[in-house]
Amino acid sequence: MEFKCKSCGAQLHFDQGQISSKCEYCGNTYMIFDFLDKETQRYQEKKHLVNKDNSRYKEIYSQYADIVISPEHYCLSASDFIDIIEFFDSAEKNDKTIELFDHAKLCFINCVESYEDCLLAVKYVEEIKLPLFDDKSEAKSALMRLAYSYRRKELIKSGFAVEVPQTKSEDDFIQLVKSLLLKNDVYHLFQPFEQEIIRSSRNNAIKYIIDNGKDVINEVTSVSNAKDIQSSLMSLVQKGILPSGCFLLEHINKRIEFITNEEQKHKKKQKYIICCSFLVFAFSLICCLTFTIRGHSIKNISITVVSKTNDAYNENLVSGHRDSGYFYTFVLDVKNSSPYDIKLIRGDMEVFNKNGDLLSTSSAEIRGNILRKSSEKYGIQLHTEKGENAREIWNTSLDELKIVFKINAVHFSDGKIKTYRNVKEIVIHEIK
User: Fold this and answer.
1) What is the pLDDT of residues 120-158, one digit of tens each?
2) Partners of residue 20 on adjacent β-strands
3) What is the distance between the alpha carbons of residues 32 and 46, in angstroms, rounded to a whole number?
4) What is the mean pLDDT of residues 274-286?
5) What percent of the chain has pLDDT over 70?
6) 96: which residues sit within 8 A by CB, 6+ positions away?
7) Which of 126, 125, 123, 113 is nearest to 78 (CA)?
8) In this structure, are residues 390 and 384 in contact, taking their beta carbons and an 8 Å threshold?
9) 146 near 112, Cβ under 8 Å?
10) Mean pLDDT along residues 35-46
11) How distant, in Å, are the alpha carbons of 332, 394, 403, 412 from that of 423?
12) What are the tens digits of pLDDT across the range 160-184?
């Protein structure tokens, strides 16, 4: 809607739903009701829409007023206050609105977070009416210092300026050297103060490299990193960033030579260690196998008969009956010198008289847990068929008998079942 200013006659424009409009020539502000006939239907319709919008307007006005008066109660950014500033700028001008307008600008100034924010804040400082600032010049100076800091961070982030590291680490040094090679060809596109930021940061970086380069290079441990530094330093010299004949080039060359020699020594040492480790492993394996073989040797087992007891006999039953024949118990002292416990010994036992005649041959089993490096006593029962040999054993004392034992198999605690072939019989009792 278009109307004429009642003060100067200039055109006033009202958008749909707009309550007030400010004359661009005389600066007076008018409400839309000032131009509508209260008696017309159009006025009533417009009044309804305006009242609806006016209610929302008052709500926003009140909310924004609370924010700019007590900004510490809200968590808002500088960009949030831009909307508030624009609202009060378009609102009906009175002393209260103008005061809130200035407070909104002050809130923005206190929340700046970028270089562009600082430049706009300097403009707002100039526009804000006193006494919100005691010293506008000091406020603008502080904002320009802050703008310098923000712009420096932006230039560093974009790679145009260089940030000097706080430490002397190898990685930081390599990154710094490489960063000096980036974006040198667009220096002239920046404003003088930006050029100063870039130039100052690069001068500080060059000083850091010259002052700390030797110490950092001395800590480099890999040829790849050393050559990376070497290549970057040579590029800096070629571009004139570092002076020709820079002492760091000679130093990095010596470091590369040193690291190369050390790596060769290390490789030789590693080969020697691997070789020795293999020999130790082979020796240990041989020892282990030898230990295992020796541990299962029949020589680790000794048997001695310590007593003989006649248990029972029956000559009336037919041969082959389980109770027919003669039964004797021989107590054996079994010594286990192996590194393993023994669970079972199987063998053949023979009994001779003093004339050397064979009186009995039978299989025998010694069952039990014979602990390693120990000895145990076990009784085994000998059964012979009835006859003269059986009666002779019954009537002969142990002292007059010769007993031999041939070990056929041994069950060890490590799971090994050792079978012995072609083993000589051992005398487990001699005639006294």
Assistant:
1) 999 999 889 877 777 888 989 999 999 899 998 998 888
2) 31
3) 9
4) 73
5) 90
6) none
7) 113
8) yes
9) yes
10) 57
11) 20, 29, 16, 18
12) 888 888 888 888 888 888 888 877 6
Q: Which of 17, 47, 49, 12 is nearest to 33 (CA)?
A: 47
Helix boundaries (H) for 77-186: 78-90, 95-110, 115-127, 136-157, 170-179
Q: Which residues contact 332 (CB under 8 A, 6 or more apart)?
A: 303, 304, 305, 306, 366, 377, 378, 379, 380, 428
Look up residue 134 and give its amino acid: D
Q: Is the pTM of this model over 0.70?
A: no
Domains of the chain: 36-156 (no CATH), 161-259 (no CATH), 298-429 (2.60.40)
Please give the average per-residue pLDDT across 304-309, as a whole number: 93
How far is residue 15 from each of residues 1, 27, 28, 50, 295, measured CA to CA in Å? 6, 18, 17, 12, 108
Closest CA to 385 of 310, 331, 314, 330: 314
Residue with tokens 């004139």: 240
- pLDDT tens per residue across span 373-386: 899 999 988 989 88
Q: Where are the beta strands (DSSP E) in 247-392?
A: 301-314, 325-336, 342-352, 358-370, 374-384
